[in-house]
Every structure is written in structure tokens, then in C-alpha cells.
Amino acid sequence: MATSQGMQLQLHPIIMMPVLVQVVVVILSLSATTIAAPPTEADLKNHGCMNRCGNLNISYPFGVEKNCYLSNDFFINCSDSRPYLRNSNITISNISLEEGELRIMNYISHQCYDRFGTQQRNNYPLLRTGKFSISKTKNKFTAIGCDTYGGIVIQAENDSLVVSTGCVSECVTMHYASNGTCSGNGCCQTSIPKGVGKIIIIANSFNNHTNVWGFNPCSYAFVVEEGAFNFSTTYLQDFKEEMLPMVLDWGIGNNETCEEAKRNSTSYACGQNSDCYDAENVAGYSCICSKGYQGNAYLSDGCIDIDECADLNLNQCVEESKCLNTPGNYTCSCPKSYQGDGKTDGTRCTAGRVLVLQIVIGIAIGALTVLVSSSWLYWIFNKRRHMKLKEKFFKENGGLMLKQQLSRLERPTREAVKIFTLEELKRATNNYDDNRIVGRGGFGTVYKGILVDNTTVAIKKSQIMNQSQIEQFINEVVVLSQINHRNVVKLLGCCLETQVPLLVYEFIINGTLFEHIHNHIKASNMSWENRLRIAAETAGVLSYLHSATSIPIIHRDVKSTNILLDDNYTAKVSDFGASRLVPLDQDQLATVVQGTLGYLDPEYMLTNQLTEKSDVYSFGVVLVELITGKKVLSFDKPEKERSLARYFLSCMKNDRLFQVIDEQIEIEGIVEELTEVANIAKRCLIVKGEERPTMKEVAMELEGLINKKMKKHPWVKIDLNGEESEHLLGGKLSGFELDCTTSSGNTTTTGYDSVREHMASPMDGGR
Hints:
27% of the residues lie in helices and 23% in strands. It contains 16 helices and 40 strands. Helix 5 packs parallel to helix 8 (467-481), helix 11 packs antiparallel against helix 16 and helix 15 runs antiparallel to helix 16 (695-712).
């Protein structure tokens, strides 16, 4: 027996015997604890687990005391006989195990004014539900008021706040509102996004209720269980409710599917006689007792057999047959002198003896036939199933639509888009290893891949769930296939052989402009020269899209998270999923408002008319980000500073520009350049689109600044990328109207389902 120092130690056999026994006991005890089965009813009783808090029945996996719940997510704090979710102020009113739902009471957001338009009181409740999600199918977002717009602000992983959805409610008098109706007059409702769990609900006003104060001094907004709220016109004068019911979806496991959980036997939470189902609206899975059983599927012995024979409504046995209960089922047997299955929907018990010989011969012939043909049929079935599955995915992922769109393009453009096989991309990403993930967003996950020729690529695995998102995916392929510019992320190809489609791009190594502006460590490397060059390169791309392509392209989602940087800090514009091709005979398009709050053109939000000047406004906001180093929306700041665009324009108007310049920028020697760039941004942010400059004018002005700098300091080399393009031809794309949410990087892209004709910019008020 060797020690850790390599010395030989001799022990007497009699002395070693107790040691060996202890080792065996330890090994046996360890092996006995490797599989952690769900607890039994007796286990919960032994721990003294409470099954009730106030009026709420509590069933495992939820619990009130230690060892009585599955994990901290399912802990219920029973304080003063009132059940709260974990250590929060979220009151629970009902728990449903079979539906995987939790009903809670949530606070109402409000904002009230006096007759002079001065805000008197407000409340913006913050809701954190942990791993649980607000049910998309069981709830509605609702706003009340005659001068009101409300929204759901989602707190993303990088703590940025973005509006996901909202609606507008207006009316001149109470006569325009109707009891029980939320159609936009006094009350509006809309659906909420999927998978939301950390939100702020905001209620805001366009004109501080000055025009409607006599009968409606307040705006209200809340998420409520569908059917639990009935609008009354009296609510416009005074809405007294403080909380309303809301439904949360919950699941078991840390984002595991049923198959993954079953492989990991130590965490599988379903008990005996239960079935596992992947949760539809939340991460994880749920457990339900199998057919013929009832009870709690999360306990080892929780699913109890149903005695169908004891209830005539549960069995189909006829009077002359005998019902016999079996585990999970029952059987009906005919008397000895009868034949049949004894059921009302089968062969009832009929007179005559069973011909045993005929049955034996029939079974033998059938078995022989199955034995001879099974191998041949199995091979054919598998081959056809695989081919049909690939065809099904190809159609569902918009393959026919993509072929139709690409067929309208010139031959060089069509051949530039490579169709990758599923096997190629699996090898490139090591079967989509989590370690290869470089980004997540509302429309998919981005993996780093290495192709067989050692080319490093970015592979975007989309999460298409409905027709509008399929159209967005096809739109991005078609738009990018027509763009050949060194400052645009290049599309290399796609794969449609999987359940979710895949896009393959060139790999940009240095992250997003958003990270380099707002991360203090990375921002230290962002010199003024780099910022100016990045702005000029981005402006050059947008100018190229607007005026140098055969069919003008409006990006529609210009923001710092959609501008990537390579290792030389060269700008690469990305994410063309929301872009639109503009027919040559039109200068504007009527579309559903889509973009990112803070970057959205207020004129576009008001009129729904998309023009090239919408990109100009968004680029102006990016310029302000580069100058100030501040985020475009900051709800934790004073009201006048919440909207970066409005705050910047206010500083420019009051000649206080250098109070908001990013501390990382060395101002000495570049005061004139900073002032000129700030004036360009100011012109881009003009409310009326027709008064804004074109992107071509902006690009020329920024390029002029760089050229002037090079003449002044000829030893400084600034590489301004010019336009590198091939002449683009393409068909006219049909309009794609997209749903609420998409995201790229850490900022969520929003589409308003209900934007009314008189809606003003949501930056008014900064919420």
C-alpha cells in the first residue's frame, strides 16, 4: 500500500480488515446516493411539510419549509398566513400542477396629473419572476386612459431596458369609450411576448392629461389574466384596484428537455406512472400522471391508479361482461360460453365458443408474414421518413419562398449563396456545443464554427415559430445576398435541412460597437479617431444601401448592437432581418412600426411611413452614443435625461455640449471636430424627416472631416473604407410584417401591434 510520498507502508492483515470494511461501506453508500429519486408522500410527512398556507393548497414541487420543495425557485414564503413567491412581495393565489401554471396578484402601474399637467403621483411596478415566465396565452397587456400609452419594459441580461410591446388608448370624451370594450377608446389591450419574466410596466401620457383631466386624470397599465378584467368607463375617473391576477408558466429543470432530463437520472423530477412533456411557453419540462392514473406526478408514489370499474362513466363494459381493474387500465371479459371483448364500442359478448384452431392458424400466418417482410418494410420506411422530414423542414423554413426570391436575382448573386448540409454545420460547431455560443437573441443563437477548409464562420441558428418570422428570415437572406460591401457582414450561405434554419456569415471577432462604448474597459481603447472612422464607415454603408444599390434598401434597425467591429476596429453592419427593399417608383413604404426604442424615428412611429430618413434618425442616435458614451434609454435617471436624444438636443440648444462628452475622449485639439460631428447628429435628429440630411450627405461630411484630419496630421493613417460593390439587380419583395420581438446582441427589437394614428414619439416623457 503506497503513501502519497511514494513510501511503502506495511500493515498487519488484522489491522487492515476494519479499514477495508469501512471503505466498502463508504463505496456502497456513495453508489446508493447517485440516483436521487423524487420524494414520496411519506418523505414529506417525515419532514413535517405543510400542505397549506392561508387559503392556498401547496403541493410538491412547491413547499414552505426546507426539504419540502424541489429547488429555491419553488420555495413559498408563508408569512402571516399569506403565500409569497420566494422572498418577494408576489402573492400566490393558485397553483396548478397539471397545467404548469401559477396564478399571482400583480400591482398596477399608474401616472396621475393635476389640471395644470403637473405629475402628482406615479408607480412603475418591477416584476421579477425568476425562472418562471408570464404566460403569453393566458394574459393580456392592458392600458386605461384617454391620453395614454403603456408598455412592457424588459430588463435584458446586460441590464439594458427595452420596450417589448405596448398599446395606445385615446378619447376626446367619455362617450367614445364603451363598457366591456378595450379597442383603443379609453382602453386598449394587446398580447405579450413569450418567455418574459423580468419587466417594468409603464403607464405614460402624451399631453399630461391636460385635455381630458376633467374626466380622466390618470393613465393605468397592467398585465392581467385574460377574462379576469372587464373594462368600465367609470375607471377613467377613478380606478381603485391595486392588484389584478396574472398567470405564470413554470417548468422543471434548468432549460432541460425531457430526453436530457431522463439521461441525467439524478435530476429527473417525474415520479412513477407519469409522462414527461417539454414545456411550450417556458424553459424545462412538466410531469403529468399517465392515462389511468391521477395525483401528483412530481412524487415517486404520487400517481395513483384509477379504479375505472368503480365508476360506470369510466368503463365501457356491457352488463353481461365482467370489469376487472388493472394498473392504469381495465379489462372486460365475457362469460365462459361467450366470445367478444365485452365493450360497448367493440364486439359485445356473443353466443358461441371460440374457435381455438382458427385463432392459432391465423396467428401463425400473421407472424410468418410479419417476420418475412419486417426487415424490408423497415428499411423503406426509414428512408422515406428521412426524405419526407427533410422536405417538410425545407418547406416550413421558407425554402420555396427563398427559391422564388433568389430566382429573380442575377446569376452571380444566386451562386454567391452556398447551401450547406446539416452534417457540414454539425462538424463546424462540434454538434452545436454550448462552448461555441458567441451570442443569443430573440430570433436565435449564434455559434462560432470552423469549416473543413479552416474558415472561421458565424452560424445563426434561428428560432422560427410563425409565418412572419419565416418571412423575416427569407428577407435577411435575400437582402444580404445582394450586398457586396466591405463594411457589411458577408452572408456565406444557409442550411434549410433542420427544424430551425441556419445562416452562415463571416466571423467578426471583436464584438459589437455597443460593448466598446458602454464597457469601461473596452471604451478605453476607443479613441476619437476610431470613433470618427467607425461613424464614417457606418454612414458610408447606409449611403450605399440607400443610393448605390439597384433597388434602395432601408436597414430599419440601425443601432450600436448591430454594428460589429473586427480586430482592426473596422465597422461591419449586421442584422438585416428587418430591412426592406424600396421599389424604384416609391420613396416611402407603409409598414408596421418596427425598430428599437430610443433609436426609432418619431415621424415613422407617428405615420407608419418608412423612408430612408428613418435610418438617418437612427444613425444620429448612434452618433450621439459615440460622442457621449451614454445609453440611449436610462429609466433610472431623472426624466429629462432618460432619453439620450432629447437630452443631447437640450444640451446643444443651451450650448452645453461639452458637459455630455464621453470622459474617455481626449477633447484637447479636437473641439472643432467634436462640434461639427455634434451638429451633424443634431441635424439627423430633426423631427421632420424632410429636413434631415441624406445619408450620402452625412457620409460625405464625415469623410471630409477625416480627410481634413489627414491633411493636418499626414503621419496619421485613417483607413476609411469606400464602397466596394457589385451592381445589384433584384425583384420587388412583398411586405413583411413582423411580430413583437426580435433581438441582436443585448438589445431587443420591438414591433408595436397597436400604434394609433395620433401617437407621438415614446421619447416624450422618456418612458
